[in-house]
Amino acid sequence: MHPRWYMSGKCNNKTLPSNKYRVTILSYGDPISGSCSDARMNQLLPPVTTPETPRCARPELSGVLALACALIFLLMTPALRAQDWVKTGTGLGVDKVRLAVADFKPSSSDPQNDALLKTFNDTLWNDLDVSGVVELVSKSFYPLQVPGQPVDVNFPAWNAPPPNAAMLAFGSFGVAGGKLTVQGWLYDVKNTGSPQVLGKQYTDTPSDDAARVIAHKFADEIILRLGGGIPGIAESKIYFVSDRSGKKEIWVMDYDGSNQRQVTNLGSISLSPRISPDGTRLAFSSLTKTGWEIKMFSLELNRLVSFPHLGGTNLSPAWSPDGLKLAFSSSRGGSPEIYIADSNGTNLRSMTANKGPDVSPIWNRKTGAQIAYVSGATGLPQVYTMETDGTNQQRMTDQGYAVSPSWAPNGQFLVLAWERKYGPGDPGALDLYLMDIASKQWVQLTHDGGRNDSPSWSPDGRHIVFQSSRSGKEEIWMMLANGDKLRQLTFTGRNTQPNWSWK
Amino acid sequence: MKHASKQWFALAVTLGAILALGACSKKAAPPPPPPPPAPPAPTASLSVNPSSIQAGQSATLSWQTTNATDVSIDGIGAVQANGSQSVSPMDSATYHLTAKGAGGSQEATARITVTQAPPPPPPTAAAPTDEDLFSQNIKDVYFDYDKSDVRGDQQSSVLGDVQFLNQHASISFTVEGHCDERGSTEYNLALGDKRATAVKNALVSAGVGASRIKTISYGKEKPFCSESNEACWQQNRRGHLVYQK
Q1: Distance of alpha carbon A163 from alpha carbon A146, whole angstroms
Q2: What is the CA A176 to chain-centroid distance, rounded?
Q3: How much is the ipTM here?
Q4: What residues of chain A lie within 8 A of the CB of B183, using their CB?
Q5: Is a pLDDT exceeding 90 seen at residue A229?
Q6: Which residues share a beta bridge with A300?
Q7: Per-residue pLDDT tens for A176-204?
Q8: What percent helix, strand, coil does chain A show, rounded to 5?
């Protein structure tokens, strides 16, 4: 008896109905699902070379091929599921580790301890959860006795089901004598002979902030070791625009949305914050008495530093990866064009000369040799790339309304805001798309409605922060670069144009 | 500009208010229906002149009917078959005439728009300032979506503006470029810059001195209205001319 097979989903099409992209094959009436996303993304990503197989079967292929395809899926399913749906190149060759994170044990009975310990445990768990590199084992599977010291670790209770953890993070946390001391370990619980991967001790003055910072540092140590050697982002910052003070000012927060504070207080409209690669200066655009000018804020001096008055409308500054140059849009010559200047505003050179507005440049942060930007040269705005001397201008998007490119840290991808079917009477929904620069192939990352715009990559290339109106008003959200682990970071006022620090 | 007047008109109706300069008259004189065999149906027409007054002024309401035995106007009562009457409503109003005859009845309406009277001029009444004249005479220039070229139906606004500006050569002003809410903040600011420059260029090429004109883009930062529909978006896609003190 030959099994019947059916397919659902469109494996060869670029339009993905949902962010988990599946083929369902029914045999003898039993549904078995396998992911064909990897085959698709392999076509998209040059470094992963699987040229022909296991490309998704098409309905017109022979039943034999379909069966073979199904078999491959069946064999590969657990591995495929463990990998990023979109490979950003950072997790290649690394399976997600099953990590158990035991709540740290209080090592003192100081009255401050409980509240700070909760902050610490929550922050550590969240950092590891959103990192995208580990699979956290649910706390409901943990044994009742969690260790606070290495001697307390009961290996069989962790390395066998139900937790079946490969790694265990644990430690102790205590305020004593006005000092907060945290000891943390990472154990390879399947290697009972030599289990310790990491052992750290931190001391600080006890405060909520210190508890969070220590949790971030410890999380980053774990992620560095379990995530293929790429540093974590738990100590990175996100700059953004907020109107919660009544005017649009530049604000900053920790990458997880905590610790939000106002940076500028100009009482005007300040937009497009871009943090310098070394994290010391913030370039942005602000409305002055004479028009939009580029402003420069020193985070070391905590004040504006001089930047020349350029005239015209000056918008959307972008740092070169060496921090020596700025690209931005200026209409000082009559029409908004892309200019490059030294980071002190001298040596201005215009790079484009189009009929339409040119805006939103972003440097290739891997090579520093190309710039992506938005141009209305042919009508609706499209995303282009060019060399930093203005040559080799290439249109990347083929239709619709495409804006706000952000260049991935690995240099291979752009993420951009795109409305592929833009026109009169359209409600104006924008979604985020990931584009492979070499092939111009793309994949849609957001599907959940609202206007999604202003994406910015995390330093590890695994996350994207962006603004979305999906909750009813513009707020800042983050997600993994494959669209998973979506979470809202801001809730007060309208918050837009997030920009992730470079490290 | 047609679009804009309609919007103002609608506002005036709903709010009973009172700020608009423009006005519309609704001429309600439906053509007489084809004569029935017998008896002839009544006809009626009602008009008000002028159709727009300031509060406290009066206008003349006139009506003509035929084949009617019983003619009445709501709020006034029974009237002659043909006639006229002076009215001075304090608010915008619609007059409604009903003519009844042996052949049936016929209705007619006329609308009067009442604008708020300006505050009484101070005893030493000064001539209107340049700023007043500017706001009374200058029209904004509207754009198609994602476009920054001055479209054909906006040329009359531009010509009117040029005429006024050439007669008042001492006035300096700013052209603000505005955009609707769709698309990115940054692209809309660049587009608004193109729109402001396009209006400036149109005025300069018609003889207005470039040194009198500043431009600025507001992108979608300072919209005139905030609904998500085409009528509102059109309001927000404009070159807005602002008197410079």
Answers
A1: 12
A2: 38
A3: 0.81
A4: 381, 401, 403, 428, 430
A5: no
A6: none
A7: 989 999 999 999 999 999 999 999 999 99
A8: 15, 35, 50
In Å, how far is B2's CA from the nearest CA of chain A?
19
Widest CA span of chain A, in angstroms?
A: 81
Q: What token pair was written down for A342?
A: 């030294």
Specify whether domain B2-115 bears CATH 3.90.190.20: no
What are the CA-CA distances from residue B99 to residues A191, A501, B29, B86, B134 (Å)?
102, 77, 13, 20, 46
pLDDT one-digit tens code per residue, B59-102: 888 888 888 888 888 877 888 888 888 888 878 888 888 888 88
The answer to whether B190 contacts A401, with C-beta atoms less than 8 Å apart, is: no
Sorted by where each starts, the structural domains of chain A and their CATH numbers stand as 22-82 (no CATH), 97-226 (3.40.50.10070), 237-500 (2.120.10.30)
What pLDDT does residue A148 have?
A: 95
The Cα–Cα gap between B29 and A109 comes to 90
Q: How many CA atoms lie within 13 A of A190 on its CB side?
A: 11
**How many helical (H) and strand (E) elements, i.e. helices and strands, does chain B have?**
5, 12
d(CA A285, CA B115): 43
The answer to whether residues A439 and A41 touch, using CB atoms and an 8 Å cutoff, is no
Number of inter-chain CB pairs under 8 A, A vs B: 91
CB contact under 8 A, B185 and A497: yes
Q: How many CB atoms lie within 10 A of CB A230?
A: 18
CATH class of the B130-244 domain in this structure? alpha beta
Alpha-carbon separation of residue B115 from A198, A414, B16 (angstroms): 79, 56, 9
Structure confidence at residue A9 (pLDDT): 34
Residues A133/A140, Cβ–Cβ less than 8 Å: no
